[in-house]
Amino acid sequence: MTEKVKIAMTWAAACGGCDVALLDLEERLLDLTRIADVVYWPVALDFKRRDLAALPDGGLDIGLFNGAVRTSEQEEDALLLRRKAKVLVAFGACAAFGGVPGLANLSDREGIFATAYGSTPSTENPNGLRPEPRCVVNGGERTLPEFHDTVRSLAQVAAVDLVLPGCPPPAERLIDLVEAVARFAATGETPPCGTVLAHDKALCDECPRNSTRRGGRVSEFRRPHEVLADPEVCFLEQGLLCLGIATRGGCGLSCLKANMPCRGCFGPTAQALDPAAEALSALGSIAGDANENDVPAHVMKRGVQSIRDPAGTFYRFTLPSACLNRAVRDVPAEKSP
Q: Strand 36-40 vs strand 69-71: parallel, antiparallel, or unpaired?
């Protein structure tokens, strides 16, 4: 009998949904267990980091890493898994692009700590205590992971072989991963480094609502709770912001089938330099008075300005991996490094 593929899965800055997503394979999970053994999965089974560290370098076949990299411990985990695994998979939007945790790059460590430990309504912290990497308690030293100033995607920390996008990855793409594992088990061959297990055309290309797009202008963009959306008509045609225009397809259209616009969790296509810039450019071209063809700049701008929380909308899943990947705060000259 051919030796089974050894798989490990670990998580970083994430919600845990990617771990649960493996169960969405349902009976196909049995296909995975026939060809693979899980040798490390601490969120589900009683594994410790020392179990992963004890494996020889390259002794693990497939390493699944989900979550963004926020702390020193998560960075260490990413580098450790990279060392141990022949194939490293960025599993889910947070590992692939930075995900929702990456929106913390709109602030910095100091801003986040000032809010969390000082200004929230439920916080009582009269002494202004903050978590420290090291402190002495009863004569013994206690340590915490360092909280980095910037959230990063997995590829910004370690070389990634496969990318499985989604929040979380849908069952259809998980099956692609199982098949990739099966091919690896049979031949030892891996796809080219950085291969994305998804389609390389925008979601609009496969959306069944695309045929209802008439190419008109949108004078105002509204939020889903403000409109009773027609389930057969293009969201943009209804003035609802849908990021399918700048998002990779292959998600199975689960949000669209639930009558909700695309939020962008599959990230950009390979041709997109920056997903948010691509989306904003496309939306700017359709913003304006619906009754005018030659739209003045101020009218177009008014339509774009109706978009609430542009950064959180356009960079919801991709800020750390974007061209402009964080807010920059001016530092007084005397404090500059």
A: unpaired
Q: How would you write 186-255 as a 3-class SS string?
A: HHCCCCCCCEECCCCCEHHHHCHHHHHCCCCCECCCECHHHCCCCCCCCCHHHCECCHHHHCECCCCCHH
CA 229 to chain centre: 26
Q: Which two tokens stand for residue 81?
A: 């898994």
Query: Is 255 or 214 the better-scoring residue by pLDDT?
Result: 255
Strand partners for 90? 65, 163
What crossing angle do the helices spanning 28-35 and 171-187 adopt, rounded to 10°?
20
Pairing of strands 162-164, 60-66: unpaired
Distances (CA, A) of 229 to 34, 224, 235, 259, 323: 44, 7, 8, 7, 33
Cα separation, 203 vs 257, whole angstroms = 13
40, 9 in Cβ contact below 8 A? yes
CA distance 217 to 300: 9
pLDDT in tens, 198-214: 998 999 999 999 888 77
Give the integer Cα–Cα distance in Å for 147 and 27: 40
Helical pair 275-286 and 297-305, crossing angle rounded to 10 deg = 120
Encoded amino acid at 85, one letter: A
- Model confidence over 18-53: pLDDT tens digits? 998 888 878 888 888 888 899 999 988 899 999 999
What domains can you pick out in the chain, each with its CATH number?
A: 5-100+150-196 (3.40.50.700), 108-149 (no CATH), 203-321 (no CATH)
pLDDT in tens, 266-322: 999 988 888 888 888 888 777 766 555 566 666 667 777 788 888 999 999 999 999
State the alpha helices, DSSP H only, in the chain.
17-21, 28-35, 49-53, 72-84, 93-97, 109-114, 171-187, 254-257, 275-286, 297-305, 310-314
Dist. CA 88–CA 292, nearest whole Å: 51
